[in-house]
Every structure is written in structure tokens, then in C-alpha cells.
Amino acid sequence: MQLRLFAIGLAMMVAGTCAEAGDRALSVPCAEAGALELSVPDDWAVDIRRHDPRMPPTVTLAAPDGLAQWVLTPVWKAADRKPPSTPAEIRSRVQRTAETLGAGASPLRELPGGLYFDGAAGQTPDPYTRLRQGMLKVGELTVSFTAMSADTRAADQDQLLNRLGTAVHRAP
């Protein structure tokens, strides 16, 4: 019995190490505001786009099987924009987004520095069936996010929240 428990414990440690080894660090340049840094799955595609180098980037991460996608936009205060930065402003913006998507009845859920909601069925393009949207503060950045997945990849929704919870803002 003790040998079996030892083997199970060892297998869990190895599995945890392999999961962490499957991550890579992503640094998203945020012009004069520094960078947003977070860990992302190693095998996911990353696309960072912006219309102008001084503007906030949109980061799209996609699972290799195409059944999960995360979209992040870190925004910083600048002369021409003032993103929501207080808890009340973030709450108002997330609530308004939920109402716009027809998910106003969905409860807002807290995460460190922000809020999110889970959308109702039918609010995502195929092949996705689940939607999670929200906003949080990471240092001086306000990060909006959308996670979409198929039911078979539902755990990716929580994975994004965990990764955003450990993200950091590197000031210039």
C-alpha cells in the first residue's frame, strides 16, 4: 500500500513538472508603459497585433487543436486614453460588457484586481461553446480579456484566470 501511495505521489509530481515545463514566458511590449509578462502554454500560437506601435496591442493565443482561444488587450494611461483603473470603474465596464452581450444576469465574479463573467450559450462563434470575459489591473496596466473554448477545453477558462493572476507589469 505504501509503495502504491509513493508511486502515485511520484507520478503527480512528475505530471506537475511536465505541465510547468510546457509553458513559456510571454512578454507583450506596451510602448512607453513597459511590458505585460505572463506564462502561456508552450504549444499555443501567439499573435500580437497593433495598428500603431504606441497603441495598446491585442494578443491572441490559440490552442493547437483550435478549440480554445484567449484574447488579451493591456491598456495604459496616456494623453489620449484613460482606461478603467479603480475597482468601481472596472466593475462598471465589465457589467456594461455583460449587458451588451446579453449576459447581464450572469453574476460578476471576482479575481485579484478585477472581475469577470461567464457568457451564456450561443454567444460565441463556432467551434466555441463557452465564453468568459473580464478585466483586471496588472500593475499600472488594465487588461481586458476574452476566453472562448469548446466544452472539451473548459479547463482552459480557469487556466487563463490563473495565468493572469500571476502576470506582472514590467515598467520601462
UniProtKB/TrEMBL annotation:
Q: Which residues form the signal peptide?
A: 1-21
Keywords, ordered alphabetically = Signal
Full protein name: Lipoprotein
**What is this organism's lineage?**
Bacteria, Pseudomonadati, Pseudomonadota, Betaproteobacteria, Nitrosomonadales
